[in-house]
Amino acid sequence: MKPKMHSVAPNATQVRQRVLSGMRPTGALHLGHYHGALKNWVRLQSEYDCFYFVADWHALTTHYEDREVVEKNVYDMVIDWLAAGLDPELATIFIQSRLPEHAELFTLLSMGTPLGWLERVPTYKDQIEKLKDRDLATYGFLGYPLLQAADILIYRAGFVPVGEDQSSHVELTREVARRFNHLYGRESNFDVLAQAVLKKMSKSDAKAFEVARKSFQQDGLETALGQARALIAGCEAFGAADRERLEGYLRGTGKAILHEPQALHTEVRKLPGLDGAKMSKSYGNAIAMREEPAEVERKIKRMPTDPQRVRRTDAGDPTRCPVWQFHQVYSKADTQAWVMQGCTTAGIGCLECKQPVIDAIKKEQEPWRERAEPYLSNPKQVHWIVEVGTERARTVARETMRDVRAAMGLTY
Ligand code: ATP
Ligand code: MG
After folding, report:
1. Atom of ligand 1 nearest to the CA of 282
2. How far apart are the C-alpha atoms of 100 and 147, rounded to whole Å?
3. Which ligand neighbours the alpha carbon of 325 most closely?
4. Looking at the CA of 279, which ligand is closest?
5. Does residue 256 contact residue 248 with C-beta atoms inside 8 Å?
6. Among all residues, which ones are annotated catalytic?
7. Spatial separation of the C-alpha atoms in residues 210 and 202, rounded to whole Å
8. 164-220 per-position pLDDT tens digit
9. Over the stretch 111-152, which tens digit does the pLDDT of each residue have?
């Protein structure tokens, strides 16, 4: 075990909130994936109990006709993750399709989820528009945000790191959880059970709790909610299940079987591709995380620059040049100033200007290549990491499904 595990206080791991995120194995990861998502994943792994999964079923929602793509990229993507610095001792890494529990929860949730909720997800119409060459008028594609909801809810994740465009998916997940708890969280004897829990409190505290609960439920008084919660928190006789039941009793929501997650907004920038548009493998403008250095050099050298700077002696305008966008990500202030000055006065040529970007990207890639090396030469190690992660995830998923089945009356 690595020393950093020991620096975590014994019970700190228990209270660490869970973060869940996934990526679709549809190709080699590129610099955009690193700057837009992975870098953040690496940062989160030491603060949260992170669950990161290979979303192979999600890949099939758009790539159902090309199974080789998904098949080829599953373990390769995990190698990219490890190369970026994910530590399998800190984060749980697993493959979605190895856990049929996701599909079971998806099916059960689908029964009560209104179609309109899915049709209204903004990315639904966008993507259908964007990916016109694929037939996405499928049941699976419409349902994928619900599958995502199942992925999140099954691990009772507290946080989901998302970019702006994905917020609506977390919102849908919250609605689905709320609806589920509302439909199935109210056991017929819920209030009786809650009052039995209250008996573990001192008489005066229990009385104060009831007063606060009524004033919250009748008048919506937030201060009363706070008082009641403080009483729950202060009672040492309660276990986790007691606290949860009283929280549901207090808010009038019943038992929370599925937990509402929150979106974890982090500032990530959109990385442009070689042509200035967003870097994406489908646009053919990407540099892979583990692209060969010679290839990086070739790609950058061929990048278009300010179209109006035709001759070396013409002054250029960086704001019209995609290389400048790379400088904004990769170069320090002094280099940026050198570019700005040199370009606008025709003091430097475009190839000269590109060199610091080439150097910076190659340097960024070095540790990735180094970390990937042992995994590439020993793929069994990667399989083992995924194996361990999958079993860890399964323990949690099974527990949730037990509660879900019981709540829905599926325990005969
Ligand atoms: P691609 O867009 O290359 O085809 P993909 O569609 O399989 O890849 P996405 O789902 O678009 O993958 O991206 C996975 C994650 O990486 C998302 O969190 C997304 O925001 C991030 N990401 C992808 N491309 C970029 C980029 N150019 N800049 C910043 N973040 C990006
Ligand atoms: Mg994309």
Report:
1. 4
2. 12
3. 1
4. 1
5. yes
6. 130, 200, 203
7. 12
8. 778 899 999 999 999 999 889 877 788 888 999 999 999 999 999 999 999 998 888
9. 999 999 999 998 888 888 888 888 888 999 999 999 999 999
